Amino acid sequence: MKSVKSAAGSWVWILTGIVSITLSVLFFLPASWLGALLEKQTQGRLSLGDVQGSFWRGSAFVGVASGASGPVTPLFAGRFAWKISPLILLAQVEAELANPESLSAIVKIQGNFSELQVSPASLLLPTERLEGLGAPLNTIGPTGKLRMSWNNLRFARDAGKLNADGQLQVELSEMASRLSPVKPLGSYNMAFDLHGANADLHLNTLKGPMMLAGSGTLNGGRFQFSGKAWAEEGQQARLANLLNLLGQRRKDGDQDVIALEFK
């Protein structure tokens, strides 16, 4: 009987030790795990640099990796700080993301492994840093400001696929390009209506001199867009070369425009 009690006591201590070690490992997970997750989800396009803290509470800047072991070039201004609740171990997600230089507000992410809700906010991105994402942006050489805002944003996993619902706005202000002597070219707005695996897109111009307009859809990963580009009155000659690079000329009533077609 004593031997049975002794064996049982030993197993209790072994199990206690295993649980203690497991919890210690979980609660001191390195923040680099998030970097690996980000790289996997973006297929290596984005990475974390100067990672500090732990998986549960830490900070880093988000950037573009220059190679498998190369340095990470910051893409956004400032550092992103995160907090992740231990409730994630019970399949409940409660997390916060903050960056006073790039985010308009603290972003709260709540839900579970099947469905997530993201609180409204906007993200500011210096457009010239987009060159780090490669062609064709490094050829266009964009400058200006890009602000992305969202509302009623929800992600849900269905049959292994990630679907999104909500409204997304992308505002490009005072845009310019090294390909054109006209600076700025204009300010534009793109509105996305996300519904599951599909999305509707509407593009319009807030101010010129280069005018853009059109609409498109994303269905099952296939993007289609139909739009046009044209110059404000008096700017046709200065914008002719840039407009010719965008597409084929056509008549839209009495106006010459450039067809923007993606199918």
Explain what you see.
The structure is a single chain. This protein is an alpha+beta fold and 263 residues long. The chain contains four helices and 16 strands. The chain has helices at 2-27, 32-41, 137-140, 236-246; strands at 47-53, 57-65, 72-74, 80-84, 92-98, 107-112, 115-118, 121-126, 142-158, 161-177, 186-196, 198-207, 210-219, 222-231, 248-252, 255-262. It has a 16-stranded antiparallel β-sheet that branches. The protein is globular and about 65 Å long. The N and C termini lie far apart (79 Å).
Task: Summarize the model shown.
Keywords: Cell inner membrane, Cell membrane, Membrane, Protein transport, Transmembrane, Transmembrane helix, Transport. This protein is of the alpha+beta class and 263 residues long.
Strand and helix map with partners:
Blueprint: H1 2-27, H2 32-41, E1 47-53, E2 57-65, E3 72-74, E4 80-84, E5 92-98, E6 107-112, E7 115-118, E8 121-126, H3 137-140, E9 142-158, E10 161-177, E11 186-196, E12 198-207, E13 210-219, E14 222-231, H4 236-246, E15 248-252, E16 255-262
Antiparallel strand pairs: 1-2, 2-3, 2-4, 4-5, 5-6, 6-7, 7-9, 8-9, 9-10, 10-11, 11-12, 12-13, 13-14, 14-16, 15-16
